[in-house]
């Protein structure tokens, strides 16, 4: 009563008598009921606010757990990406070693083929040279037989043989020079054939090396394309997680506003 009288504050009092009678202030029961109703509404609002705060805290804890899960998933994705890169690097190193070994093997095979071809050509040229050398040795033993001038001139044969003119010698030397020219021609032809074989082997080796380089580039592009697809999938997964997190936060905010 003093609060209502002195301070102008709305107040209500309910008094229970010793015999169970009830009295209230203000004296008008309607005013007392209005004050009691206002108190009940205040208590209900306080209770609802407390429940809303509790629910908000619960949702916040749930969101915190969701954020922790998202952070853990992001760390796991980063770890998987690093492991994928390590696997790709190991695969590329193994491919490079394999291709390098293949190139060295092809070079060794080509060198061996060249060596065998050179040996065959050398044997062939050696046989030709030996044949021409034998021919020259046989030719050196040729004896000039004098022409027969008939039975009537047999008596002068010994005189002719002993007096052969020296101007016949150049003709014999010219005959003996012919095998030398033939030997040089055969040797030159064998050398040209050997060079042609070497050029053909070089072309074959270059084609094989180009094929291996193209194959290696194709394998590298295929591996990188697979990694890019995996990375795009991971980015889509991260986007979905972020969208889900934002949806949870918006739903929590809407529920909180509705409670208020």
Give a summary of the structure in a few sentences:
With 260 residues, the protein is mainly alpha-helical.
Structure description:
Helix content is 83%, strand content 3%. It has 260 residues and is mostly helical. A hairpin with a 5-residue loop joins strand 1 and strand 2 (22-25). It has a domain at 1-53. A two-stranded antiparallel ribbon has the order 1-2. The radius of gyration is 58 Å and the shape is rod-shaped. The protein contains four helices and two strands, in the order H-E-E-H-H-H. The two termini are 34 Å apart. This is MADS-box domain-containing protein. Keywords: Coiled coil. InterPro entries: TF_MADSbox_sf. Residues 63-90 form a coiled coil. One of its GO terms (molecular function) is protein dimerization activity.
Helix-residue proportion: over 70%
| Average residue-wise pLDDT | 69
N- and C-termini, Cα separation: 34 Å
Q: Approximately how much beta-strand content do the residues carry? A: under 5%
Q: Count of DSSP helices?
A: 4
Low-confidence stretches: 139-157, 164-181
How much is the radius of gyration in Å?
58 Å
Number of strands: 2
Write the layout of secondary structure elements.
Elements: H1 2-7, E1 13-16, E2 22-25, H2 29-140, H3 157-162, H4 169-259
Antiparallel strand pairs: 1-2
Helix pairs in contact: 2-4
List keywords for this structure.
single chain; 260 residues; mainly alpha; rod-shaped
